[in-house]
Amino acid sequence: MDLESGVYGNPVKKQSWRTILTLAYQSLGVVYGDLSTSPLYVYKSTFAEDIQHSETNEEIYGVLSFVFWTLTLVPLLKYVFIVLRADDNGEGGTFALYSLLCRHARVSFLPSGQVADEELSTYKKDGIGPPDTSYGSKLKSTLEKHKVLQRVLLILALIGTCMVIGDGVLTPAISVFSAVSGLELSMSKEHHKYVEVPIACVILVCLFALQHYGTHRVGFMFAPIVITWLLCISVIGVYNIFHWNPHVYQALSPYYMYKFLKKTQRGGWMSLGGILLCITGSEAMFADLGHFSQLSIQIAFTLVVYPSLILAYMGQAAYLSKHHMIESDYRIGFYVSVPAILAAVVGSQAIITGTFSIIKQCSALGCFPRVKIVHTSSKIHGQIYIPEINWILMLLCLAVTIGFRDTKRMGNASGLAVITVMLVTTCLMSLVIVLCWHQSVFLAVCFIFFFGTIEALYFSASLIKFLEGAWVPIALAFIFLIVMYVWHYGTLKKYEYDVQNKVSINWILSLGPSLGIVRVRGIGLIDTGLVSGIPAIFSHFVTNLPAFHQVLVFLCIKSVPVPYVRPEERFLVGRIGPKQYRLYRCIVRYGYRDVHKDDLDFEKDLVCSIAEFVRSEKTEPNVGSVDLDKDDEKMTVVGTSSTHLEGIQVYEDDENPAKMAGPSELREIQSPVKPKKRVRFVVPESPRMDPSTRDELRELMEAREAGMAFILGHSYMRAKRGSSLIKKLVINAGYDFLRRNCRGPTYALNIPHASTLEVGMMYYV
């Protein structure tokens, strides 16, 4: 299906109120499920063992005051009003912030960057110019000079990403397990401990099995459940306030936080790990931004979610202020009255969706092994499903549930993951304020000092519970961090080897137009990561085989640090050597959120872009052309076939150019040879076409009719002699294991297996 048509308007064009409200409705079922279900376990985790109730109610009032101000300052003030504005062309998450910084401070580790990429319309935002402050320019130059600082920035972004994945494991476990714990009322404790875990596991399996239906369907299905849930906890909250303790609103004063810490001291500080759970899911607002829109998420939180949660926590505090026996009365006051299990299932959806999004970004930017990415919506480009990650999350989630069987330890683990992601976001945001927004360093320091202090307090309270469950997110993050860094390191080393061993263009020219071999009909696409020069794989192939295709295209499919590339800027096309060589270079640029098209559409767009380049090479020599560095050829920006309707068009088999050509005067170029597959180029009548250009187009058309072959390099990497033991371990064992077990480039590029030829090469790096 053609996904590209619905991809690019979403972040750019102004949306109608109907669309915004529809997205706000869907976001309730996807983004806010986790945040909305936190009342299931916040008070229970807080009063687990560190603090106890007293007749003065200072503890419960203090906890309510902490919950209120934490919800107000972190999700509402920090995320809704500040962080959501730091979107990367409509996309959010840790890697979106990192991508912004890469573009504005040139700290990207993407090896195939070009000057031409900076001309992309999505590369810069409106109003961005040189930094306004001397401190800002000093910070920028410092980051650009020191590779160590760039590596620290990358590791910081990867840590945030790994903790999001860890949260994707822990949040479903604690949400579902907490809800199932409410069933304890209807059965004896002896029966309950044998039933609780299996029920939770069955619910988790069903939840992950639903993911392949996509965010769009899941959002519409889950949104009514979340709305019902929020309505229930709001009504119950209001009832509890008026029935049990109408004066509970006094606890909203910050004074009660001071009284709480003064009385409970170390126990109160340690209990902050439980209070922290009231903001689990806040990061999902930013991570899932690409699925919805900034305004829709702000409306849903400010008008629906935030007031409901405040009423729910106040109601619970009012109830508990009159019922100090939390073990028996807490559950009676809460679980019986609401559809807790359904709400918990929904609560897990937000973080699972966010995990898919962030892994897609990492994979596109070369920081995660290639995985299968299924786009579940033809209209909204951010809505994806990753089967491998889905089932890995499910297995880890089941392992945590079976291993812990305890809400308290799950809460400790989840809390640490949540607060670490928030700390990373705060650090990256402070850099964005200076480098991207060009605000004063003082403002950035205030931001990191204010929010960083709050989050550091919660982080310290969570870290102290290391042996009581908090080790789990650290262990998970460490494993995923190693995987990401090993893959990133191996990818960089492979590219460096390609650059150092590329073949000189003079070598190609010395072979003559036939390249010293027999040129057979067809198009040969040589896959390469290089944006300039001839890859070593080509010389390896030519010296071992006596024949090659009449048209050769060096194809580089690369990611750029923007969320998406507009179709009219998709291709960079250039010529290698003189015309009669029929050698072309085509660089296909994708953003980290882009949809890779089906192989047939891609082939057609590729041929059309080369044909349009050939046609416009002399008639429009200066339009869209970009001069690249060193020995590289001149490249021209060419869009997909759907974006240059007045230029050349390609029609294959049964397509009728008379119906599809458009208003301009067109004429056909047809092949004199009767092909298996009929291909026609329809070109504008004027200006008059050069005979050599016409011959070149006819030859290209005949080659397309004969078919395409994809030549892929199958690289085996080994550390060269004299390398350190760590490097040998990383390259020979780590990277090699990941390469053999991830999706191969054949799948990643949507290439049909029957047309693929792999050439093996040994890389010593």
From TrEMBL:
<feature type="transmembrane region" description="Helical">
    <location>
        <begin position="441"/>
        <end position="459"/>
    </location>
</feature>
<keyword id="KW-0406">Ion transport</keyword>
<dbReference type="GO" id="GO:0016020">
    <property type="term" value="C:membrane"/>
</dbReference>
<keyword id="KW-0472">Membrane</keyword>
<keyword id="KW-0813">Transport</keyword>
<keyword id="KW-0630">Potassium</keyword>
<feature type="transmembrane region" description="Helical">
    <location>
        <begin position="299"/>
        <end position="320"/>
    </location>
</feature>
<feature type="transmembrane region" description="Helical">
    <location>
        <begin position="220"/>
        <end position="242"/>
    </location>
</feature>
<dbReference type="InterPro" id="IPR003855">
    <property type="entry name" value="K+_transporter"/>
</dbReference>
<dbReference type="Pfam" id="PF02705">
    <property type="entry name" value="K_trans"/>
</dbReference>
<dbReference type="InterPro" id="IPR053952">
    <property type="entry name" value="K_trans_C"/>
</dbReference>
<feature type="transmembrane region" description="Helical">
    <location>
        <begin position="416"/>
        <end position="435"/>
    </location>
</feature>
<comment type="function">
    <text>Potassium transporter.</text>
</comment>
<protein>
    <recommendedName>
        <fullName>Potassium transporter</fullName>
    </recommendedName>
</protein>
<feature type="transmembrane region" description="Helical">
    <location>
        <begin position="384"/>
        <end position="404"/>
    </location>
</feature>
<feature type="transmembrane region" description="Helical">
    <location>
        <begin position="332"/>
        <end position="352"/>
    </location>
</feature>
<feature type="transmembrane region" description="Helical">
    <location>
        <begin position="267"/>
        <end position="287"/>
    </location>
</feature>
<feature type="transmembrane region" description="Helical">
    <location>
        <begin position="471"/>
        <end position="490"/>
    </location>
</feature>
<feature type="transmembrane region" description="Helical">
    <location>
        <begin position="148"/>
        <end position="166"/>
    </location>
</feature>
<dbReference type="InterPro" id="IPR053951">
    <property type="entry name" value="K_trans_N"/>
</dbReference>
<feature type="domain" description="K+ potassium transporter C-terminal">
    <location>
        <begin position="528"/>
        <end position="763"/>
    </location>
</feature>
<dbReference type="Pfam" id="PF22776">
    <property type="entry name" value="K_trans_C"/>
</dbReference>
<dbReference type="GO" id="GO:0015079">
    <property type="term" value="F:potassium ion transmembrane transporter activity"/>
</dbReference>
<keyword id="KW-0633">Potassium transport</keyword>
<keyword id="KW-0812">Transmembrane</keyword>
<keyword id="KW-1133">Transmembrane helix</keyword>
<feature type="transmembrane region" description="Helical">
    <location>
        <begin position="60"/>
        <end position="81"/>
    </location>
</feature>
<comment type="similarity">
    <text>Belongs to the HAK/KUP transporter (TC 2.A.72.3) family.</text>
</comment>
<feature type="domain" description="K+ potassium transporter integral membrane">
    <location>
        <begin position="23"/>
        <end position="509"/>
    </location>
</feature>
